Amino acid sequence: MRIKVRDTGRVQILDLDGELKLGVGDTALRDTVKGLINTGHNNLVLNLRHVRWIDSSGMGEMVACRKRVAERGGELKLLMPSEKIYSLLVLVRFHEYFQIHHDESQAVVSFIV
Known about the structure:
Strand content: 25-35%
Helix content: 25-40%
Largest sheet: 5 strands, mixed
Strand order of the largest sheet: 1-2-3-4-5
Low-confidence stretches: none
Number of strands: 5
Order of helices and strands: EEHEHEHEH
Number of helices: 4
Oligomer: single chain
Mean pLDDT: 95
């Protein structure tokens, strides 16, 4: 799992590329989010466009990251999951827990509204 962080000012976008699964992406995501939180960044968007697979550990880490961010008064939102990943997120009802956006500019603006 590769994670590139882009700063849009008030919102950090984490471009994830690879598989978000046990021992691979879950620790990378945890470490990246903790690092951002520790430097005062607590409005985050996970760009899932290039995520090919998410297992239960990856989903658990996404929930844990959302909780960590919320404890600091921020939000964590999801962006552009592929059709396959979106179907998985709906199946496990993540769409009820996370805001899922299909347009980056709308995701960023959603923090202002």
